[in-house]
Amino acid sequence: MTELLVVDSLQDLHDLAAVAPAAFEPVVAVPSAPALLERLRAWEADFHAGQARATVAAVRADWLQYIDWCEAQHHTPLPADVDQLASFINNALIRGRKLSTLKRYVYTVGLIHEAAGLPSPAKDARWKRKWGAIKKQLAERAGTDGEPDNGNLTRQAGELLTDDITTILATLGTHPRDRRDAAMLKLASDTLARESELVAVRVEHLHFNRARGSWSLWLPRSKSNQTGERRDYRHVSEETMACIRAWQAAAGIDEGLLFRPVGGRPKRRVQTALEEGREPPVVALGAKEVARIFRRRAIQAGLTNAWSISGHSTRVGTANDLINGGATIAQIMDAGGWRSAEMVAVYTRRSQAGANAVAELRARQRARGGTQGR
User: Fold this and answer.
1) What's the CA gap between 92 and 98, in Å, rounded?
2) Considering the entire predicted model, what is its pTM?
């Protein structure tokens, strides 16, 4: 279980108070440090219960970075003023952290302050000026080779377009591992499922619509639907279902988790069950394995962008297939379960460059025999 450890980290400080006396001025309704820590402990339990594991892990990691810096600089963690937050972020910038990481640090420090009933330094009127200076330094940062290294650009996973997946599938055989990987690639491409969503797919989640004669995948939970309140169904093509059925037949899977490890060393609990003569438990494929499988298959197929392939590459690829096919941003958001258009725009920026106003202008000029370029 991933725990936040916010209170534990504060209580484990050496030769440093967890909370400065300034926190107990009349303006702040907290009578003592123990009461503040108790409030944080209650918040910690609620946050852990209500957030995804990845979110909890990210907040924990970022908070511990802040605690380590406070210990090294001998700064009391709570409360931090604007100058202390700026010093922490500047230190992270010097250590090469990119913009997205710096934003996370600011968010986490502010989050813990508010959870403790303290004012967030990131909401102080002076923070906007401090943050502007930090971003200016980041924009001017260069790497060891003298080239720009400002960390402002999002490093996008290599895309796996439909044609790329067709190329990969042509290199696969009939071994169970090949059958599994083909089914994973096809299903991920059709549904734009994330790694964690893909490995959680069960046979029972596949549905056939008799009226339409088509298949769909039900995702009980996703990053944008963590509580399962929205019924999230994604289209599954006939070709993908054929690959899934081939994998099921090869692995003898009739129910339960669809994607499982093939061969290799048995997990400890599986080995223990076998030694004790019990039915071994079904072990899910790890989410991190998805990226390794996709990258390995892309390398074997000789794709030029193979080393940039990740577990998100099918999402990037299908998003670009959709934009090139005339789909709107809203339709792509619905297909991939995005809550905002920002990441869709990032993923499809290169494809949309061929459909912007300049591209349309040149096409019209060509159509009427324009003379540009003569």
Assistant:
1) 9
2) 0.63
